[in-house]
Amino acid sequence: MVLDSNIWVDLLVFRDPHVEPIRTALEAGTIAPVIRADCREELRRVLAYPQFARFDIDIDAALATVDRLASLEAAPPQADYDAIRLPRCKDTDDQKFVELAHFAGAACLVSKDKAVLKLRTRLRRSSGVEVMTPPAFGAWLATLGAASAADPL
Predict the structure, then answer these.
(1) In the beta sheet, which residues pair with residue 73?
(2) Global confidence as pTM
(3) Domain PIN: where (predicted)?
(4) Are the C-beta atoms of 66 and 3 separated by less than 8 Å?
(5) What domains sit in the chain, N to C, each tagged with a CATH number?
(6) How many CB atoms lie within 10 A of CB 11?
(7) Longest dimension (CA), the chain
(8) pLDDT at 146
(9) 72 C-beta neighbours (distance < 10 Å), count
(10) 147: pLDDT confidence band, cut at 50, 70 and 90?
(11) Whether residue 151 has pLDDT greater than 60
């Protein structure tokens, strides 16, 4: 599974109740997100935005949490990108999450970003990746019920 930067920010900075099922599943090891170096670097930049200064975020500690909870996925060779036709995200900054979900074989991409959410049908058709909002992902987790930490998503 892939979490975009906004979801990581909600997990690391805010106490948004919509991401609490994700937090619980992460801590239990029920879900195992993947991240790529460029996605992690974007998260570092986002956490340093001036509007977050009032939260006094320890960016290194936040990224250490991401490193503990997510597996680092290598970017595929350019030839792999050239060989496929992935849906293009209107927000080019979010395209990396679409690519990560596809190349990592992720079951889902969790996002609140409108440009990413608009790709739902096309990404499912091209890659088999479900694009979900945090509440939809939380509901999906609830239907799984007894998902085992030995078989994380």
Answers:
(1) 36
(2) 0.88
(3) 2-115
(4) no
(5) 2-143 (3.40.50.1010)
(6) 21
(7) 45
(8) 40
(9) 12
(10) very low
(11) no
